[in-house]
Amino acid sequence: MLINWFTVISQAINFLILLWLMKRFLYKPILTAIDKRETKIAETIAKTKIEKEKIDVLKIEVQKKKSDFENNQNELLKKGQEEAKQEKTNLLKEAKNEADESRKKWHESLVTEQKDINEKFQKLALEVPCKYLLELLYHVLTPILLLLQSLI
User: Fold this and answer.
1) pLDDT value for 19
2) How many other C-beta atoms can be found within 10 angstroms of the C-beta atom of residue 33?
3) Quick check: 95 and 50 in contact, CB under 8 A?
4) What is the SS3 assignment for 73?
């Protein structure tokens, strides 16, 4: 059995081209999407830390107000405690609502990104193999057809 070196070399070249195309059009977009996702996660963490620091500052302010009111009469103490509790509850609710909203937005963006990446991957996964399969069939069948034509 003779080895057709032209076919072997052309298949090797086709394989190398396939690897290059997959690296360029598949691997790089995935890495880009991962980098974007990591950036968004880092931004969300930074925002959460800032909000936590704000909450800590507000807790300290509430504690200061409470200690000031303890020095006053019992009536002022009761009023101050009620106001501090109400303010603390409202601030915590607001902070929780903001954190929940940012978490929801972040989750929605991740879901959207994942869908986009899946769609791109599916598109590329179908296009590239089909293209190379057609090229392979062309290279395989062309010599056979030429041989048949020469026989006829």
Assistant:
1) 92
2) 15
3) no
4) coil
Q: Band the pLDDT of 146: cuts 50, 70, 90.
A: confident
Token pair listed for 135:
């090229």
Amino acid at 72: N
Amino acid at 18: L
Query: Could you give the angle at the alpha carbon of 32 between the alpha carbons of 31 and 37, nearest 5°?
Result: 95
> Smallest Cα–Cα separation from 81: which of 94, 99, 97, 65?
65
- Cα 14 to Cα 22: distance, rounded to the nearest angstrom: 12
Q: How far is CA 144 from CA 105, 122, 133, 138, 139, in A?
A: 59, 33, 17, 10, 9
* Long-range own/partner contacts, residues 125-132 (CB < 8 A, 24 or more apart): 128/18, 128/21, 128/22, 128/25, 128/26, 132/14, 132/18
pLDDT at 99 over 70: yes
Residue-wise pLDDT tens digits, 44-89:
999 999 999 999 999 999 888 877 666 666 676 678 889 999 999 9
